[in-house]
Amino acid sequence: MRHDGTPAATCEGLVRIYWSPSGEVHALKGVDAVVPAGRLTAITGPSGSGKSSLLRILAAQDRPTAGRAEVAGHPLTGLSARRLRALRRRHIGYVFARPPQNLLPHLTGHEHLAMAARYRGVGRAEARREGAELLDLLGIAHRAEHLPGQLSGGEQQRLAFAQAVIGRPALVMADEPTSELDSATTADLLTAVSELTRTGTTVVMATHDPLAASAADQVIHLRSGAVSHEEVAGRRLAVIDGDGRVQLPEEALARFPARRVLIDVTGDGVVLREPS
Ligand SMILES: Nc1ncnc2c1ncn2[C@@H]1O[C@H](COP(=O)(O)OP(=O)(O)OP(=O)(O)O)[C@@H](O)[C@H]1O
């Protein structure tokens, strides 16, 4: 699959507030992000920082309280439930954390792929061809006739990825896909997912696992419902939000105990200093 430089997904000023009997929870507080096509993007951050909330909105499973999100150039906001469902079916694949959430115990690998292809509107011959190609790419071609109960946890997650990718949706979302796997199986699964991105698939995964994050082309790090920084090609980039706010890294924050700062804009940069 070739890409023309259009991002697989974008969001701007994304806000998600949950209302519960104990009060409001501001889970996302204005998230701006770009998911490049054909890459593996990891969303990381401490528990409660908003990873799943962001993932669910980009997967068109939930709606933001405010802000905009697009997948493959299609706005997700302002759509009727029917159109949102159609967009999800065509453009979004999803992998859950636990293998049994992804697979049905009475269907073989081939049958899972045939079902997913039908759901996505792929013809039978094309589904057979693409299914065989995906199982091969993910290293489970020899397990195609097995039931999930006969597969290891890692093999089950590979099958879950094949199922999410068949029909080539614009975006494959995975919520903690390695959380139930040991580190060797995690490394193997990540290699397989990288193979998928090399053939043009876009994968976004929420993860706590530093090993999984280190395999990503881009890491979006959330802190308290906002993007604190991104990592691209091994470089840590602070993110300036739409209102000009930057979250300082913890080690920089520690330099300003009074939480007040002097800002000098110089010829070649911007310097933050503690007021004397
Ligand atoms: N349906 C809901 N109702 C009320 N609060 C919610 C709901 N879903 C999430 N939250 C709250 O929103 C905040 C962000 O949750 P979210 O699940 O997005 O974080 P997370 O980074 O994925 O966390 P974890 O790593 O623990 O899964 C948390 O404070 C959580 O308790």
UniProtKB/TrEMBL annotation:
Keywords assigned: ATP-binding, Nucleotide-binding, Transport
Keyword hit for Nucleotide-binding: yes
InterPro entries: AAA+_ATPase, ABC_transporter-like_ATP-bd, ABC_transporter-like_CS, ABC_transpr_LolD-like, MacB-like_ATP-bd, P-loop_NTPase
Entry keyword annotation includes Transport: yes
Protein name according to UniProt: Putative ABC transport system ATP-binding protein
Gene Ontology terms, MF aspect: ATP binding; ATP hydrolysis activity; transmembrane transporter activity
Domain ABC transporter: 9-249
Matches recorded under CDD domains: ABC_MJ0796_LolCDE_FtsE
